[in-house]
Design goal:
CATH superfamily of the largest domain: Transferase(Phosphotransferase) domain 1
Enzyme class: transferase
Structural class: alpha+beta
Shape: elongated
Largest sheet: 6 strands, antiparallel
Oligomer: single chain
Number of helices: 13
Keywords: ATP-binding, Kinase, Membrane, Nucleotide-binding, Serine/threonine-protein kinase, Transferase, Transmembrane, Transmembrane helix
EC number: 2.7.11.1
CATH architecture of the largest domain: Orthogonal Bundle
InterPro entries: Kinase-like_dom_sf, PASTA_dom, Prot_kinase_dom, Ser/Thr_kinase_AS
CATH topology of the largest domain: Transferase(Phosphotransferase), domain 1
Distance between the termini: 121 Å
Catalytic activity: L-seryl-[protein] + ATP = O-phospho-L-seryl-[protein] + ADP + H(+); L-threonyl-[protein] + ATP = O-phospho-L-threonyl-[protein] + ADP + H(+)
Strand order of the largest sheet: 1-2-3-4-6-5
C-alpha cells in the first residue's frame, strides 16, 4: 500500500531541532503537531500558526502572547510551554505533549458527569486557574476544549491564546474574544474582562458537566450573548435533580450577573469547593489528581479510603498503613486457671485451617482475575491500538489498514481544503490516537474544498479586505493599479487563481489576489516639463517624450499633452509627454499700398487669417492703408491680421 504525507509539515525539521511526526489538531489560528525534540529526545506538541496569518501582526502578537502568558506559569494543572520561535515565515510554539482527551470529548461521550467526577475536574481547573490569577493573568477563553485530561490522570488547563495581563481591567475595542457560550455579561456588554470573567466561564462549565448541556442556546450568537447579559444562569438541579445543593449554590455564586457578587478569583472559589467537598462526596475522601482518566476515556469514580483499583490509588498522608491481621481468639480458660483446654485448642486450629483455605482460594481467584484482565486489555477485545495514518489514502487502502488494525469502519464525507476529492481526509478517532480494538471508527472521505461565499470587499481598505477573506489564501503581495475612482489603499478588484475576477462563490482556502488602488495618475498637462517628469516618476511611472510642437496657447517648455501607454495603468507603466515649443512666430508681409485683394492673398499665403470690413465687390478698387500688426512685425503663425483699405474710384 502506498502512503502519502498527511500534509507538507509531516517530516519537516523545524528550526533544526523539532522533527514533525503527525498532526494532532487544527484550529482557526494554528495547527498542532506531534514532534520529537531531537536535542532533548522527548515528544512535544508544536503549535504552528497558519501561513495565511503570518503577515497579520494582530494574530502574530496574539500567538506570541500565548507563549509568554503560559511560560509565566509553573503549575501541575497548566500545560507547560517549552519554547517559542520563528522558522523562516512560520511562527511556532513548543508545548508539553499530553496524550489523552479534552473535557469536550468526555462530555460528547458521556453527556454529563456525576457530582464527584465534576468536583475532581473542577478542583484541578481551579487550581491551575488560581495560579494564573496569582500571576496576574486572565485566561479569557475557558471552555471544555481547553481542559485536557491526560491518559496518566493529570488534568491541565491549556490554550492561553487570548490571555492578557490583569494588572487593570482588560478591555478590547475589537469584536468579542472567546467562545460566546462562556462569555460573562460584562464582556458581552462592555468588552471588559478580569479574573471574575474567568470565574463566570468556570461556572458555565460546571453547569454543563452536571446537566450535559449549556444554560443558554440560540440560533444566532447575539441571541446567546443577550441571554448572558440579561438572564441569571439557572441551578443545575432544575435539569438534573441529583445535583447536590452545594453545587447548585456554587454555580449560582460563580455565574452571578454582577461581577462583584462572584468569587474575586479562582483561589477563593477553590477554597469554597474544598469546604463543601466532604458533603458532596458523602464522607468519602477527596481523590483529586489521584483519579486517573481510564483508557476508555472516562474518569474513575472516587474510591473509599484505603481502596485501590487499576485506575485509582488513594493515599492518606504519605501512605496508608497496612491493615493488621487480627490474632485468633481463644475460648476462656477452665476453672483451674491452667490455660485453654484441649477442645478449645482443637477448635482454634480447625478455625485457622479453614481461614487458610479461604485465603488460598481468594489468592487464586484474584490471580485468575488479574491474568484475565491482563489478557483482555493486553491482547483481547479490550486492548488498545493506534489508529493508522490514512490521510490522503484511497478509501479502499485506508479501510484495509484500519481493519488490519482491528477496527470496524464506517464511511462519512466531509469537505477538506487540503485533501483532494475522493481521498481520505481523516478519521474519528484521529490518526495517531489510541482506540479500543473492535470499536467503531468513522473514516472521512474528502469532497474537496468547501465552496463558500466570497465577501464583497471592493472599495474596502486592504487590511479589512484581508480580514474578511481569511477563509481563503490571499497572496501576500497585492497588485497595484492607478484609479481615479477608488481611493488609494482600497480594493479595486479580487482576482481568482487564473487572474479572472473571482465569482460570488469560491473554494475554501483557494488562492486569491487583491488589486489595490494607488490613487489617480498625476495630472501634468500645462505644467513645466521638468516638474511633470519628477511628479510622474515619484508616482512610480516611467516618462518618455514625443517631438515637441508649436502651440500658441501653451507656454514654451510646458506639457501640451500626457498620453498613457497602458490601460489600466500600473506602477512602471509609460507616460508619453508632448512639450510645447511656444508660439510659431513669422514676419507679417508689408502690403500697404497694394490692392485689398492682393494684400489678402499675400497674408493668407503667409498662413495668417485676414480680417477686413469692405464688401468683397470693392476689393479690387481699394488700396491698403494699414495693417494690424504692421508689416514686418512678428506674429504667431495662423493668427489674425486686420487690414484697413480705402476706395480709389
Amino acid at each position: 500500500m502506498t502512503t502519502a504525507p498527511v500534509d507538507p509539515m509531516i517530516g519537516r525539521l523545524i528550526d533544526g531541532r523539532y522533527q514533525v511526526r503527525s498532526r494532532i489538531a487544527r484550529g482557526g489560528m494554528a495547527t498542532v503537531y506531534l514532534a520529537t525534540d531531537l536535542r532533548l529526545e522527548r515528544r512535544v506538541a508544536i503549535k504552528i500558526m497558519h501561513g495565511h496569518l503570518a503577515d497579520d501582526n494582530t494574530f502574530k502578537t496574539r500567538f506570541v502572547q500565548e507563549a509568554r502568558s503560559a511560560a509565566r506559569l509553573a503549575h501541575p494543572n497548566v500545560v507547560n510551554v517549552f519554547d517559542q520561535g520563528q522558522d523562516s515565515d512560520m511562527a511556532y510554539l513548543v508545548m508539553e505533549y499530553l496524550p489523552g482527551i479534552t473535557l469536550r470529548d468526555l462530555l460528547k461521550d458521556y453527556k454529563r458527569l456525576t457530582p464527584e467526577q465534576t468536583v475532581d475536574i473542577l478542583d484541578a481547573v481551579l487550581a491551575g486557574l488560581a495560579a494564573a490569577h496569582k500571576a496576574g493573568i486572565v485566561h479569557r477563553d475557558l471552555k471544555p476544549e481547553n481542559v485536557l485530561l491526560a491518559d496518566d490522570g493529570r488534568i491541565k488547563l491549556g490554550d492561553f491564546g487570548l490571555a492578557r495581563a490583569a494588572s487593570a481591567n482588560t478591555a478590547t475595542g475589537q469584536a468579542l474574544l472567546g467562545t460566546i457560550a462562556y462569555l460573562s455579561p460584562e464582556l458581552v456588554t462592555r468588552g471588559i474582562a478580569d479574573a471574575r470573567s474567568d470565574i463566570y466561564a468556570v461556572g458555565i462549565m460546571v453547569y454543563e458537566m452536571l446537566t450535559g448541556e449549556q444554560p443558554y442556546v440560540g440560533e444566532a450568537p447575539m441571541a446567546i450573548a443577550y441571554q448572558h447579559a440579561n438572564d441569571q444562569v439557572p441551578m443545575p438541579s432544575t435539569k438534573n435533580p441529583s445535583v447536590p445543593v452545594e453545587l447548585d449554590e456554587l454555580v449560582l455564586w460563580s455565574t452571578s450577573r454582577d461581577p462583584d457578587a462572584r468569587p474575586r478569583d479562582a483561589k477563593e472559589m477553590l477554597d469554597r469547593l474544598r469546604q463543601i467537598e466532604p458533603e458532596i462526596r458523602g464522607g468519602r475522601m477527596n481523590t483529586t489528581q489521584a483519579t486517573s482518566v481510564l483508557t476508555g476515556g472516562f474518569l474513575a469514580a472516587p474510591a473509599p479510603v484505603g481502596a485501590s483499583t487499576a485506575a485509582t490509588t488513594v493515599l492518606t498522608g504519605t501512605a496508608l498503613a497496612p491493615t493488621p491481621v487480627p490474632s485468633p481468639s481463644f475460648p476462656p480458660s477452665d476453672a483451674d486457671g491452667d490455660g485453654p483446654d484441649a477442645a478449645a485448642l482443637t477448635t482454634a486450629a480447625a478455625h485457622r485451617r479453614r481461614r487458610g483455605y479461604w485465603i488460598l482460594a481468594l489468592v487464586l481467584l484474584l490471580t485468575g482475575l488479574a491474568a484475565g484482565t491482563g489478557w483482555y486489555f493486553g491482547a483481547g477485545p479490550g486492548s488498545y491500538a493506534t489508529v493508522p495514518q490514512i490521510v490522503n489514502e484511497t478509501p479502499d487502502d485506508a479501510r484495509a489498514a484500519l481493519v488490519d488494525a482491528g477496527f470496524e469502519v464506517t464511511d462519512a464525507q466531509r469537505s477538506d481544503p487540503e485533501v483532494a476529492d475522493g481521498l481520505v481526509s481523516g478519521s474519528d478517532p484521529a490518526p495517531g490516537e489510541q482506540a479500543q480494538r473492535g470499536s467503531a471508527l468513522t473514516m472521512y472521505i474528502s469532497t474537496g474544498p468547501a465552496i463558500i461565499a466570497v465577501p464583497q470587499v471592493v472599495g474596502a481598505a486592504e487590511a479589512d479586505a484581508r480580514t474578511q477573506l481569511s477563509a481563503f489564501t490571499v497572496n501576500a503581495k497585492s497588485v497595484e493599479q492607478f484609479s481615479a475612482d477608488v481611493p488609494s489603499g482600497s480594493v479595486i478588484a479580487v482576482l481568482a487563481a487564473d487572474g479572472s475576477p473571482v465569482p460570488d462563490q469560491y473554494a475554501e482556502r483557494g488562492k486569491l489576489s487583491l488589486v489595490v488602488s494607488v490613487g489617480a495618475v498625476p495630472p501634468v498637462e500645462g505644467k513645466l516639463a521638468t516638474d511633470a517628469e519628477a511628479e510622474l516618476k515619484a508616482a512610480g511611472l516611467t516618462v518618455e517624450y514625443a517631438e515637441p510642437v508649436f502651440d500658441n496657447e501653451v507656454p514654451k517648455d510646458h506639457v501640451k499633452t500626457a498620453d498613457w501607454a497602458d490601460d489600466p495603468m500600473v506602477p512602471g507603466s509609460k507616460v508619453m509627454l508632448t512639450v510645447s515649443k511656444g508660439p510659431d512666430l513669422v514676419a507679417v508681409p508689408d502690403v500697404v499700398g497694394q490692392s485689398m485683394r492682393d494684400a489678402i492673398a499675400a497674408l493668407e499665403a503667409a498662413e495668417f487669417e485676414v480680417s477686413y470690413s469692405l464688401p468683397d465687390v470693392f476689393l479690387d478698387f481699394a488700396k491698403v492703408t494699414s495693417t494690424d500688426p504692421a508689416g514686418a512685425a512678428q506674429a504667431p503663425r495662423g493668427s489674425t491680421i486686420t487690414v484697413v483699405g480705402q476706395l480709389t474710384l
